[in-house]
Amino acid sequence: MICCVRSRIEDALGHGMIEMRRAQLSFGDGLIAEEVSDLREDWMKHADAVLADEDIVAAVYEALAKRHPKSRSRGRRGTSAETVLRLLILKHIRNWSYGVLEREVRANLVYRDFTRVGVSKAPDAKTMGRWGVALGPEVVKQIHERMVSIAQANGLAEGRRMRVDTTVVETNIHYPTDSSLLGDGVRVLIRSMKKIIKITGAPEPSCATAAAA
Predict the structure, then answer these.
(1) Spatial separation of the C-alpha atoms in residues 58 and 48, rounded to whole Å
(2) Do 19 and 80 touch, CB atoms closer than 8 A?
(3) pLDDT tens for residues 128-155?
(4) CB neighbourhood size of 115 (10 A)
(5) What is the DSSP string of 17-50?
(6) Residue 37 · residue 114 · CB < 8 Å
(7) In 3D, which of 138, 140, 95, 88 has the Cα closest to residue 114?
Protein backbone atom coordinates (compact mmCIF):
# COMPACT_ATOMS: atom_id res chain seq x y z
CA MET A 1 0.00 0.00 0.00
CA ILE A 2 2.80 2.41 0.85
CA CYS A 3 5.75 2.65 -1.52
CA CYS A 4 9.30 2.42 -0.17
CA VAL A 5 8.21 2.06 3.45
CA ARG A 6 9.38 -1.39 4.42
CA SER A 7 13.02 -0.62 3.67
CA ARG A 8 12.91 2.43 6.00
CA ILE A 9 11.07 0.97 8.98
CA GLU A 10 14.21 -0.31 10.69
CA ASP A 11 15.86 3.12 10.54
CA ALA A 12 12.66 4.86 11.57
CA LEU A 13 12.45 2.80 14.74
CA GLY A 14 15.45 4.48 16.27
CA HIS A 15 18.06 6.04 14.00
CA GLY A 16 16.46 8.97 12.14
CA MET A 17 15.26 12.41 13.17
CA ILE A 18 11.69 11.10 12.89
CA GLU A 19 10.90 7.86 14.70
CA MET A 20 8.16 5.44 13.73
CA ARG A 21 7.28 4.71 17.35
CA ARG A 22 8.42 6.11 20.67
CA ALA A 23 9.96 3.37 22.79
CA GLN A 24 8.64 3.34 26.35
CA LEU A 25 11.94 3.38 28.16
CA SER A 26 11.73 5.89 30.99
CA PHE A 27 10.67 5.10 34.54
CA GLY A 28 8.07 7.89 34.39
CA ASP A 29 6.33 6.45 31.33
CA GLY A 30 5.99 3.08 33.00
CA LEU A 31 4.65 4.69 36.16
CA ILE A 32 1.97 6.58 34.21
CA ALA A 33 0.91 3.45 32.30
CA GLU A 34 0.54 1.47 35.52
CA GLU A 35 -1.34 4.26 37.28
CA VAL A 36 -3.99 4.74 34.56
CA SER A 37 -4.34 1.18 33.26
CA ASP A 38 -7.82 0.80 34.79
CA LEU A 39 -8.93 4.31 33.71
CA ARG A 40 -8.50 3.88 29.96
CA GLU A 41 -11.69 3.95 27.92
CA ASP A 42 -12.82 0.93 25.89
CA TRP A 43 -12.22 2.61 22.52
CA MET A 44 -8.60 3.18 23.45
CA LYS A 45 -8.04 -0.57 23.75
CA HIS A 46 -9.47 -1.11 20.26
CA ALA A 47 -7.36 1.77 18.93
CA ASP A 48 -4.23 0.18 20.40
CA ALA A 49 -4.96 -3.03 18.51
CA VAL A 50 -5.45 -1.22 15.19
CA LEU A 51 -2.43 1.04 15.65
CA ALA A 52 -0.19 -2.00 16.13
CA ASP A 53 -0.37 -2.26 12.33
CA GLU A 54 2.87 -0.95 10.84
CA ASP A 55 1.30 0.25 7.55
CA ILE A 56 -0.95 2.75 9.33
CA VAL A 57 1.88 4.30 11.34
CA ALA A 58 4.19 4.15 8.29
CA ALA A 59 1.75 6.30 6.29
CA VAL A 60 2.08 9.04 8.89
CA TYR A 61 5.86 8.59 9.07
CA GLU A 62 6.20 9.09 5.31
CA ALA A 63 4.04 12.23 5.40
CA LEU A 64 6.15 13.75 8.19
CA ALA A 65 9.38 12.82 6.42
CA LYS A 66 8.27 14.75 3.32
CA ARG A 67 7.66 18.04 5.12
CA HIS A 68 11.26 19.14 4.40
CA PRO A 69 13.93 17.65 2.08
CA LYS A 70 16.21 16.64 5.00
CA SER A 71 13.56 15.76 7.58
CA ARG A 72 14.83 12.19 7.87
CA SER A 73 18.41 13.06 8.73
CA ARG A 74 18.76 16.65 9.95
CA GLY A 75 17.38 18.90 12.64
CA ARG A 76 16.37 18.07 16.18
CA ARG A 77 14.61 14.81 16.87
CA GLY A 78 10.91 15.15 16.15
CA THR A 79 7.82 13.58 17.67
CA SER A 80 7.32 9.97 16.65
CA ALA A 81 4.82 9.18 13.89
CA GLU A 82 2.84 7.01 16.30
CA THR A 83 2.42 9.89 18.78
CA VAL A 84 1.40 12.30 16.02
CA LEU A 85 -1.24 9.87 14.79
CA ARG A 86 -2.60 9.18 18.28
CA LEU A 87 -2.84 12.89 19.08
CA LEU A 88 -4.81 13.57 15.89
CA ILE A 89 -7.07 10.56 16.56
CA LEU A 90 -7.80 11.88 20.06
CA LYS A 91 -8.61 15.31 18.62
CA HIS A 92 -10.99 13.78 16.08
CA ILE A 93 -12.78 11.53 18.57
CA ARG A 94 -13.25 14.32 21.10
CA ASN A 95 -14.01 16.96 18.42
CA TRP A 96 -11.54 19.34 20.05
CA SER A 97 -9.62 22.28 18.67
CA TYR A 98 -5.84 22.02 18.70
CA GLY A 99 -5.76 24.41 21.63
CA VAL A 100 -8.07 22.21 23.70
CA LEU A 101 -6.11 19.13 22.64
CA GLU A 102 -2.89 20.66 23.93
CA ARG A 103 -4.45 21.63 27.26
CA GLU A 104 -6.14 18.25 27.83
CA VAL A 105 -3.06 16.18 27.00
CA ARG A 106 -0.93 18.33 29.28
CA ALA A 107 -3.35 17.89 32.17
CA ASN A 108 -4.57 14.30 31.79
CA LEU A 109 -2.44 11.23 32.51
CA VAL A 110 -4.78 8.92 30.59
CA TYR A 111 -4.36 11.01 27.44
CA ARG A 112 -0.59 11.17 27.97
CA ASP A 113 -0.50 7.39 28.14
CA PHE A 114 -2.75 6.80 25.12
CA THR A 115 -0.93 9.28 22.88
CA ARG A 116 2.49 8.02 24.00
CA VAL A 117 3.48 11.51 25.09
CA GLY A 118 4.26 10.09 28.52
CA VAL A 119 6.41 12.32 30.68
CA SER A 120 7.69 14.27 27.67
CA LYS A 121 6.61 17.85 26.98
CA ALA A 122 3.26 17.89 25.20
CA PRO A 123 3.38 19.41 21.70
CA ASP A 124 1.87 22.88 21.35
CA ALA A 125 -1.28 23.60 19.36
CA LYS A 126 0.51 25.26 16.42
CA THR A 127 2.82 22.29 15.94
CA MET A 128 -0.08 19.85 15.98
CA GLY A 129 -1.93 22.03 13.48
CA ARG A 130 1.03 21.77 11.11
CA TRP A 131 0.96 17.99 11.49
CA GLY A 132 -2.69 17.95 10.50
CA VAL A 133 -1.86 19.89 7.34
CA ALA A 134 1.13 17.67 6.58
CA LEU A 135 -0.96 14.50 6.65
CA GLY A 136 -3.62 15.83 4.30
CA PRO A 137 -6.45 13.91 2.60
CA GLU A 138 -4.21 11.42 0.79
CA VAL A 139 -2.71 10.06 4.00
CA VAL A 140 -6.13 9.94 5.65
CA LYS A 141 -7.36 7.96 2.63
CA GLN A 142 -4.48 5.50 2.98
CA ILE A 143 -5.24 5.01 6.66
CA HIS A 144 -8.94 4.45 5.98
CA GLU A 145 -8.20 1.93 3.24
CA ARG A 146 -5.85 0.02 5.52
CA MET A 147 -8.43 0.00 8.32
CA VAL A 148 -11.03 -1.41 5.92
CA SER A 149 -8.55 -4.12 4.94
CA ILE A 150 -7.98 -4.99 8.60
CA ALA A 151 -11.73 -5.11 9.23
CA GLN A 152 -12.20 -7.39 6.22
CA ALA A 153 -9.39 -9.70 7.33
CA ASN A 154 -11.00 -10.02 10.77
CA GLY A 155 -14.51 -10.58 9.37
CA LEU A 156 -15.84 -7.33 10.84
CA ALA A 157 -16.87 -5.71 7.55
CA GLU A 158 -17.21 -6.69 3.92
CA GLY A 159 -15.96 -3.34 2.66
CA ARG A 160 -18.66 -3.00 0.01
CA ARG A 161 -20.62 -0.16 1.61
CA MET A 162 -19.64 3.21 2.93
CA ARG A 163 -21.35 4.81 5.91
CA VAL A 164 -21.31 8.58 6.14
CA ASP A 165 -21.87 10.48 9.38
CA THR A 166 -24.37 13.23 8.58
CA THR A 167 -24.89 14.43 12.13
CA VAL A 168 -25.81 18.12 12.29
CA VAL A 169 -23.24 20.13 14.23
CA GLU A 170 -24.31 23.37 15.89
CA THR A 171 -22.35 26.44 14.87
CA ASN A 172 -22.40 30.13 15.74
CA ILE A 173 -24.59 31.42 12.89
CA HIS A 174 -28.11 32.79 13.09
CA TYR A 175 -31.12 30.99 11.67
CA PRO A 176 -31.32 31.82 7.92
CA THR A 177 -34.76 33.44 7.58
CA ASP A 178 -35.58 35.44 4.42
CA SER A 179 -35.46 38.76 6.24
CA SER A 180 -32.14 38.01 7.91
CA LEU A 181 -30.59 36.90 4.61
CA LEU A 182 -31.82 40.13 3.00
CA GLY A 183 -30.33 42.11 5.86
CA ASP A 184 -27.02 40.26 5.43
CA GLY A 185 -27.01 41.17 1.74
CA VAL A 186 -27.67 44.83 2.49
CA ARG A 187 -24.85 44.93 5.07
CA VAL A 188 -22.40 43.34 2.65
CA LEU A 189 -23.34 45.81 -0.11
CA ILE A 190 -22.98 48.80 2.21
CA ARG A 191 -19.62 47.54 3.45
CA SER A 192 -18.41 47.07 -0.12
CA MET A 193 -19.64 50.54 -1.12
CA LYS A 194 -17.80 52.13 1.80
CA LYS A 195 -14.56 50.40 0.74
CA ILE A 196 -15.02 51.64 -2.83
CA ILE A 197 -15.67 55.23 -1.68
CA LYS A 198 -12.59 55.08 0.56
CA ILE A 199 -10.45 54.13 -2.43
CA THR A 200 -12.02 56.27 -5.19
CA GLY A 201 -13.44 59.13 -3.18
CA ALA A 202 -17.03 60.31 -2.86
CA PRO A 203 -18.87 60.56 -6.20
CA GLU A 204 -19.77 63.98 -7.63
CA PRO A 205 -23.50 64.87 -7.28
CA SER A 206 -25.48 64.39 -10.49
CA CYS A 207 -27.45 67.21 -12.23
CA ALA A 208 -30.75 65.69 -11.17
CA THR A 209 -29.62 65.58 -7.54
CA ALA A 210 -28.46 69.21 -7.67
CA ALA A 211 -31.77 70.34 -9.23
CA ALA A 212 -33.77 68.52 -6.57
CA ALA A 213 -31.72 70.18 -3.88
Answers:
(1) 15
(2) yes
(3) 999 988 888 888 888 888 988 888 888 8
(4) 26
(5) SS-SS----SHHHHHHHHHHTTT--HHHHHHHHH
(6) no
(7) 88
Residue 99 has, within 13 A of its CA and on its CB side, a CA count of: 0
Contact 48, 21 (CB under 8 A): no
Q: pLDDT tens-digit profile of 6-55?
A: 444 444 444 456 676 666 566 677 778 888 888 999 999 889 988 888 99
pLDDT given for residue 11 in this prediction = 45
Q: Residue 166's pLDDT band (boundaries 50, 70, 90)?
A: low
Contact 9, 54 (CB under 8 A): yes
CA distance 93 to 51: 15
Asked if 13 contacts 19 with a C-beta cutoff of 8 angstroms, the reply is: yes
Contacts of 147 (CB under 8 A, 6+ apart): 50, 56
